[in-house]
Amino acid sequence: MECKADVALVGAGAAGLSLALRLARPPAGAARLETVLFAAPPGPARAAPRTWCFWEPGGGPYDEALAASWQLLRVRGVDGTAVTSAIAPLRYKMLRSDALEELTGREIAAGGRVSRVEAAVHRITPTPDGSLVEARRADGGRIAVRARWVFDSRPADRLPPARTTLLQHFRGWFIRTARPVFDPCAVELMDFRTPQPARGLSFGYVLPLGSCEALVEYTEFSRRVLGRAEYDRALGHYAERVLGIDAYEVTAFEQGVIPMTDADFARQSAPGVFRIGACAGATRPSTGYTFSGVQRQTGAVAAALHSGRHPLPPRPYSARARLMDAVLLHALDSGRVDGPAFFTRLFGRVPAPRLLRFLDGRTSLPEDIGIGAHVPVAAMLASAVTLPLAPRRRLPAA
After folding, report:
1. pLDDT tens digits, residue range 138-180?
2. Cα(97)–Cα(36) distance, rounded to whole angstroms?
3. What CA–CA distance (Å, rounded) separates 211 from 233?
């Protein structure tokens, strides 16, 4: 089977779904583009259900699909000292992947210009008028789409060369308790009352869905992922010994690895073939947050497509933000900076809304300088001086 389209989207994760949703909702007077969204069929190529978190002011385009949202964030130091911050006018939002799929599916059905195909893409071949995208369905049937523009959000086989690459790796339990133990009004954003690795840092993370239900995660920034038993031991210790939960049921789990790297990600692989999402630099290197970067990137791509401009995905973060991230990653990896003390101090001394805008790459140069006054200046300057001397190495994809 072969068909034609204006746009082919390869991959139905955050980036593919976000761009499909924007193309299904064209602004008034915009070109209506025939689009095919390739989603991997059930099996090893399909990503497991996952959670995305982000912050934004007021209402947003995904509010109807949110699992929860909060206006209080809490950070706890290694000694248990807590800093609780109100983030108004921002809200910290939790979106599950299945809810985003459902929302996108409804919009696709209503719009009539985007079609979803369950098939695994195995080849993208440039042609004189675009590209040929070839895929296989779960039953072995083949489908091919000739598209003018192709946007590929699948994870890369290998990461680009980088001076520093840490892995943000985590495992989370959805926990249900017999008695109220969670504060439903506040997110435990970073709880450093966890055993710290020799290099990097670790913390607990709690997203309360009620007083008796929450997503509880153990997260590390380090060079090496753990085995499942190691994660479960760390989670059991955090839930029982740190949070003091004596009786609970684990109803589901999630696990993942996010590269935190100063690598330079390519955004175009061939004429008319582009990368979007985490594989195109949408992840903020210093935090691992990706969803907001995906929204900026796919919003710009959709606007370019609707206006007939060349749709090269932009870099979601400025050169200044990427440089600051590279210095921080180098400082954490070298051990010059104590990670728990660094983040606890920032949240304790910088107003939370401003700090969140900084972490999202949305602050001005004067604001960045002001925030820089609260970091260990000597350690950061030493890392800035030695960073250019660090060689770029190619590592396997996480």
Report:
1. 999 999 999 999 999 999 888 999 999 999 999 999 999 999 9
2. 19
3. 24
Which pairs count as long-range contacts for 381-385, CB under 8 Å and 24+ apart, including other chains? 382/331, 382/336, 383/327, 383/328, 383/330, 383/331, 383/334, 383/336, 383/337, 384/327
280 with 16: CB under 8 angstroms? Answer: no
246-304 pLDDT per residue, tens: 999 999 999 999 999 999 999 999 999 999 999 999 999 999 999 999 999 999 999 99
Are 284 and 317 contacting, i.e. CB atoms less than 8 angstroms apart? yes
Dihedral (C-alpha) 9, 15, 39, 110: value to the nearest 10 degrees? -80
> Residue 151 and residue 312: Cα distance in Å, rounded?
10
Taking residue 28's Cβ as centre, other Cβ atoms within 10 Å add up to 4
Tell if the pTM clears 0.90, that is, is over it.
yes
Q: What is the dihedral of CA 245, 246, 249, 253, to 10 degrees?
A: 40
- CA–CA separation, 143 and 117 (whole Å): 9
